[in-house]
Amino acid sequence: MNDYNAPENVLSEKVIxxxxxxxxxxxxxxxxxxxxxxxCILLGRTVSKLEAVYDEIVAAGYAEPAIIPLDLKGATAKNxxxxxxxxxxxxxxxxxxxxxxxVLGQLSAFEDIPEDEWQDVIQINLTGAALMTQKLLxxxxxxxxxxxxxxxxxxxxxxxxxxxxxxxxKFATEGMMQVLACEYENRNVRFNCINPGGTRTDMRANAFxxxxxxxxxxxxxxxxxxxxxxxxxxxAVNGQSLDxxxx
Length: 247
Ligand code: NDP
What we know:
It comes from Salinimonas profundi. InterPro entries: NAD(P)-bd_dom_sf (IPR036291), Sc_DH/Rdtase_CS (IPR020904), SDR_fam (IPR002347). This is YciK family oxidoreductase. Keywords: Oxidoreductase. Pfam families: adh_short (PF00106). By secondary structure, the protein is α/β, with parallel strands linked by helices. The chain has a single domain, classed as NAD(P)-binding Rossmann-like Domain (Rossmann fold). It has seven helices and seven strands. It has helices at about 25-35, 45-60, 75-90, 115-140, 165-185, 200-205, 225-230; strands spanning about 15-20, 40-45, 65-70, 95-100, 145-150, 190-195, 240-245. It has a seven-stranded parallel β-sheet with strand order 3-2-1-4-5-6-7, sandwiched between helices. α2 (about 45-60) links the parallel β2 (about 40-45) and β3. It starts with 14 loop residues before the first strand and ends with a strand. About 40% of the residues are buried. Bound molecules: NADPH dihydro-nicotinamide-adenine-dinucleotide phosphate. NADPH dihydro-nicotinamide-adenine-dinucleotide phosphate (NDP) binds near residues 72 and 73.
């Protein structure tokens, strides 16, 4: 589905929450979903970055987004409950969630992973997405068809030396997606994972500082699969982990 040619209004009438919407793949997903008709809810920890994406979307004449400033590191179940209530009051339902925000943490030998580093990466990449999903499910269930997309990585499928906590968080993300996909089979919420593959962002540059970024796909290049999974053309797809750049 990486050659998916999305119909112009494939996301019209859809309300979609994107985490980590201020930079990298999340910012591009927000701009793209808005261009294809969605009303976007931009969640992230740096308000100025969210505001810049908001301004671009409004300037382009697309549906006005909402902004939720939230640092997943300190967020609690109560924050997510409040967020779900606000979304229900403002929009009446939620049609999609792109769980995109993540941190890489330090790449190091397993023996050297500091305890606080482990806790932070698991909190942001896994627990945040888990609690948010749990608290958003009632408002997702109010949509005709809702799509929840988690973001995985190739190191979430095959372990690799020195990718420590990040890799473990992505393996667990794949597992969480499968559990949810089974529980909600034949209901109105579907769950899948996307693996972007190497993409030209700050995270990739931090992981591979010697790499020439010009050799990588841009976030815009990989959007067809994101549009496919968010739109109703993928209604039958549940429990899959799909690659933007299959080998
Ligand atoms: P970036 O580091 O460029 O962007 C990550 C986004 O997540 C930023 O907007 C960042 O906000 C936000 N974020 C980080 N921590 C928190 C937090 N505690 N609370 C709220 N928001 C937070 O990453 P990419 O765009 O490269 O990655 C997007 C997703 O794709 C991630 O899940 C990543 O694991 C995955 N991925 C990326 C690959 C790549 O090659 N780029 C390859 C495989 C997977 P802020 O800007 O304010 O820090």
